[in-house]
Amino acid sequence: MFDSIAPRYDLMNAVMTFGQHQSMRRSAARIAQPPRNGLALDLATGTGDFAIALQEVEPTCRVVGVDFAVEMMRLGQTKYNGQVQFTAGDMLKLPMPDNIFDCTVNGFVLRNVADVRTAFTEMYRVLKPGGRAVSLEITSPRTPIWKDIFGIYFDHMMPRIGGWLSGNPDAYRYLPQSVHDFLAPEAVVDLMRAVGFHDVYFRRWALGSMAIYVGIK
Ligand SMILES: C[S@@+](CC[C@H](N)C(=O)[O-])C[C@H]1O[C@@H](n2cnc3c(N)ncnc32)[C@H](O)[C@@H]1O
């Protein structure tokens, strides 16, 4: 699905978030604290925007982006040639050894994976002790009135705009459905603790439509 929408993926992100998506990734990348001369991993990197946010926060840090949608990464390579090391792989079975990354990030993927617990287990495995995992994901706002306004946009308008712009209506009908079907933020942090992360927390961003999850190995 992601390979088929790859040419319009960045444009759709800009439209859907009213241009805010890059600044959210940058804020999350700062929270990941990539160290000087360190090694960072962006899981499900897609077109590499989260990976490059890590690079911008700490230009001496080497950033690896992994995804199994090769067309998405091909576009990322064109945008960020040489700045991100793109690698094909499944984030549920990372092609990397244990204890090598100073931090991991991932954006807008947790609700897409077949097994969220395995995703966190893999992040934990490849992180060095003391390393930080940061995840960013869309979530449903809970504030009365705002949640209804957001619902009209996200559930009804956005799938039409996305279908029209991307030429793949199914992909943008799937997006709100995947958010509704996903775990509540409280359950996500429970899973992170269950696989071994400590100092785990989540915060709601963007008027409650995004959640950032943080944990330390
Ligand atoms: C919504 S895009 C997010 C891309 C990028 N993280 C961003 O911030 O724009 C979701 C990405 O997750 C990737 N993905 C989903 N499941 C995956 C898995 N098991 N392993 C690797 N990549 C995966 C898809 O191929 C797609 O590129």
Architecture overview:
The chain is an alpha/beta fold and 217 residues long. It has one domain: 3-Layer(aba) Sandwich (Rossmann fold), CATH 3.40.50. It contains eight helices and seven strands; from the N terminus they run H-H-E-H-E-H-E-E-H-E-H-H-H-E-E. Strands 3-2-1-4-5-7-6 form a seven-stranded mixed sheet, with helices on both faces. The chain is globular and about 45 Å long. The model has no long low-confidence stretch (mean pLDDT 93). The structure holds S-adenosylmethionine (SAM). Residues 2, 44-46, 49-50, 67-69, 72, 90-92, 107-109, 112-113 line the site of S-adenosylmethionine.
**Percentage of residues in helical conformation:** 40-55%
Mean pLDDT: 93
At the third CATH level, what is the topology name?
A: Rossmann fold
* Category by helix and strand content: alpha/beta
Instruction: Compute the number of strand runs.
Output: 7
Gist?
The chain has a single domain, classed as Vaccinia Virus protein VP39 (Rossmann fold, 3-Layer(aba) Sandwich). The protein is built from 8 helices and 7 strands. A 7-stranded mixed β-sheet has the order 3-2-1-4-5-7-6, with helices on both faces.
Write the layout of secondary structure elements.
Elements lengths: L1 H15 L4 H12 L6 E5 L5 H9 L4 E6 L2 H10 L5 E4 L12 E7 L8 H11 E12 L7 H21 L2 H13 L3 H11 L2 E8 L4 E7 L1
Helix pairs in contact: 1-4, 1-6, 2-3, 5-8, 6-7
